[in-house]
Design brief:
Blueprint (H helix, E strand, L loop, with lengths): L1 H18 L1 H33 L3 H50 L2 H5 L1 H12 L7 H27 L4 H46 L4 H6 L3 H53 L5 H42 L20 E8 L9 E8 L4 E6 L5 H9 L6 E6 L2 E2 L5 H4 L3 E4 L10 H6 L6 H11 L1 H5 L23 H15 L3 E5 L7 H14 L4 E5 L11 E6 L2 E6 L1 H7 L2 H18 L17
Parallel strand pairs: 3-8, 3-9, 6-7, 7-8
Antiparallel strand pairs: 1-2, 1-4, 4-5, 9-10
Helix pairs in contact: 1-10, 2-3, 2-6, 2-10, 3-6, 5-10, 6-10, 7-9, 7-10, 9-10, 14-16
This protein binds adenosine-5'-triphosphate (ATP).
Keywords: ATP-binding, Membrane, Nucleotide-binding, Transmembrane, Transmembrane helix
InterPro entries: AAA+_ATPase, ABC1_TM_sf, ABC_transporter-like_ATP-bd, ABC_transporter-like_CS, P-loop_NTPase, Type_1_exporter
Organism: Fundicoccus ignavus
Length: 609
């Protein structure tokens, strides 16, 4: 209960921060919604009373018109308020959605990549996903709850004057309903845990259906029937899981119906007895019986709304947990960014991913000197990308520290720290609508720099193939005319983006993996030029490319096992030598067999790939 109060205050605060005047209109709405059925009931009673009293017809019509006029005005106000709240609910939901998204973009990377972080975001995101979700309907729920409460108090007050026994019956009815709600609540965690697993399976399958990248496999492996079977079993499981809840709801509805019938029977018997004793006039009888009917409705609504709100408030936990995560990095004041050439030092750095048992980077120490071009090589999964993420400040070492010009990473404000890096990662890439927008990425436009990076990255030559040049749209989801860039073309755009940022540290993770040999060679020729005056890190599986670097580190199992120049490592005849020889062997084989040109692989691109 304490939690619910906390979340109730929390959501109340969110509404107040968004628009405090909503509370005033909510109050007006509650009063109008409560008054309308009551006024209609009073009108029925009055009409009978006037007829019985035999009031003059003009007077009767005047009174009737007055009452109907008031009811009409209130109906109009009610409709206007409904429209107002429909609109305001949506604005409120969108505002909270923007808050969640804004935080997501700024949230420290480790908080996002962990499974827990992803789940937190999904759960918080679900609360604003549609008008039917918590933030889309909360003011409606408050309005229903308060209206039901006010109505209940009013009708109980009315009929309790007639007979106190009503109070006992009503209390019993409410207690019974609350017990049912409690039973439902107790059942809810089991069901929702099982349903959540079922939903995950369902949405995963739905995503697979629509994933264009899988369309090839689905057809060639003839998976359609298999998919349909999985889908059918998920649906069947869902109905099975919901069975206990449905049974309980049936029992609750039966209890409620029986309770209301008993209450109504009692009301009629009472009324007839009172009329017979001339303790009740006919118009009072109408109010009395009508109040019982309205009361039954308000009790049901009140108990339902309490249960819904109770569930909703518990869901606020997801929002609270997402919005109030403790930052990992320094978001406050930091030391100034270095203006002189940059040196990076790793001191006994270890890092283990949250869901892993063994460290991906283990006790690593290395100094990367100002202006140095360092190649990082090693087998798949050796920890190369992780090392780079640590240096970039996307991950934080569990042990040891990373120093930039002698200052520990944590001394810098994290957002300023990111200004030090121009990166090209191998896996994901954000495309904006055109090639030009993608390269500039919201930075101020500098014509000379832009022209230079188009040239250096090889994008300039690529543009000649497109009629719209650098204004060529590249996101198919938003423009059906968009060009679908090949893997190699995309890699050139990525490189251009990194070069345009022109940060003092350049990090390239497999920048030429999708390039044809000629484009790759051109990039290498240019590499020395565009990495001039920068500290650069270069990950590549093509060991021939490391010859452009001053020094090479070889990673195995998260540790540096070899360091030196290409010549030194070849002379050492360790792993680097073996890997190099293995590749060289195939190159020689290829040359002998005159295997020509690799084809650029076309890959699906979207907003985010
Ligand atoms: N987000 C993550 N959560 C858990 N483990 C991860 C995560 N990212 C990477 N790993 C694991 O860390 C190890 C090192 O991954 P990393 O990507 O750094 O290797 P790599 O040397 O760059 O590999 P490759 O040459 O294949 O790109 C792998 O075993 C990988 O499964």
């Amino acid at each position: 209960m304490k939690k619910q109060w906390y979340y109730l205050k929390y959501i109340g605060k969110e509404i107040t921060e968004h628009k405090a005047v909503l509370w005033f209109w909510l109050l007006v709405r509650v009063v109008v919604q409560t008054a309308l059925p009551f006024l209609q009931l009073l009108l029925s009673a009055n009409v009978i009373q006037w007829l019985l009293e035999g009031v003059a017809i003009e007077y009767y019509l005047l009174k009737l018109a007055l009452w109907l006029g008031i009811i009409c005005v209130l109906e109009v106000i009610k409709s206007l308020l409904e429209l107002y709240f429909d609109k305001e609910n949506d604005i409120f939901r969108m505002t909270v959605m923007a808050k969640i998204n804004q935080l997501l973009y700024k949230l420290d990377y480790p908080l996002i990549i962990s499974e827990e972080g992803q789940e937190n975001f999904d759960k918080a995101g679900n609360l604003v996903a549609s008008p039917a979700q918590l933030f889309g309907r909360i003011t409606q729920e408050f309005s229903r709850l308060f209206t039901a409460f006010l109505g209940m108090v009013m009708y109980i007050g009315l009929i309790a004057q007639v007979d106190k026994l009503y109070l006992v019956l009503i209390v019993l009815l409410v207690i019974g309903l609350l017990i049912f709600k409690r039973l439902q609540k107790r059942l809810a965690p089991q069901i929702s845990a099982a349903v959540s697993v079922n939903n995950k399976r369902n949405s995963y399958i739905r995503r697979l259906y629509g994933d264009l990248r899988l369309a090839k496999d689905i057809r060639l492996y003839q998976m359609a029937n298999w998919f349909s079977e999985i889908k059918a079993s998920i649906t069947q499981d869902y109905y099975q899981l919901m069975q206990p809840k449905k049974k309980l709801m049936l029992a609750e509805n039966t209890f409620l119906s029986v309770g209301i019938i008993l209450l109504t029977i009692f009301a009629y018997i009472q009324s007839v007895r009172l009329i017979a004793n001339q303790e009740l006039v006919v118009s009072e009888f109408v109010v009395h019986v009508g109040a019982i009917t309205l009361l039954a409705g308000t009790i049901t609504e009140f108990v339902n709304q309490i249960a819904t709100l109770d569930q909703d408030l518990l869901q606020m936990k997801y929002y609270d947990e997402f919005m109030n995560q403790t930052p990992i990095f320094n978001h406050g004041e930091g030391v100034s960014l270095p203006t002189e050439a940059i040196t990076v030092e790793l001191r006994n750095v270890s890092y283990t991913y949250p869901n892993q048992n063994t460290p991906t980077i283990h006790d690593m120490s290395v100094v990367i000197q100002a202006g140095e071009k360092l190649a990082v090589v090693g087998e798949n999964g050796a920890g190369k990308t992780t090392l780079i993420k640590l240096i970039c400040g996307l991950l934080q070492p569990d042990e040891g520290e990373i120093l930039i010009n002698g200052q520990p990473q944590a001394a810098y404000n994290i957002h300023e720290y990111y200004q030090l890096f121009s990166t090209v990662f191998q896996d994901s890439f954000l495309l904006t609508y055109t090639i030009r927008d993608t390269i500039i990425q919201g930075l101020p436009f500098d014509a000379a720099r832009y022209a230079a990076v188009l040239e250096q990255s090889g994008v300039q030559r690529m543009l000649s193939k497109f009629a719209d040049g650098d204004q060529t749209p590249i996101v198919r989801q938003v423009n059906s005319e968009a060009v679908q860039l090949s893997g190699g073309q995309l890699q050139k755009v990525k490189l251009a983006q990194a070069l345009y940022k022109d940060a003092p540290i350049l990090i390239l993770d497999e920048p030429t993996a999708a390039l044809d040999p000629i484009a790759e060679d051109e990039i290498y020729q240019d590499y020395l030029r565009f990495s001039d005056n920068k500290l650069s890190l270069f990950i590549s599986h093509r060991l021939s490319s490391t010859r452009f670097c001053d020094r090479i580190i070889y990673l195995a199992g998260g540790e540096i096992t070899e360091v030196g120049t290409h010549a030194e490592l070849m002379a050492a005849k360790e792993n680097y030598y073996r890997l190099y020889e293995a590749q060289a062997y195939y190159y020689r084989e290829n040359i002998e067999h005159e295997v020509v040109e690799e084809e650029e692989e076309v890959i699906e691109v979207g907003g985010l790939i």
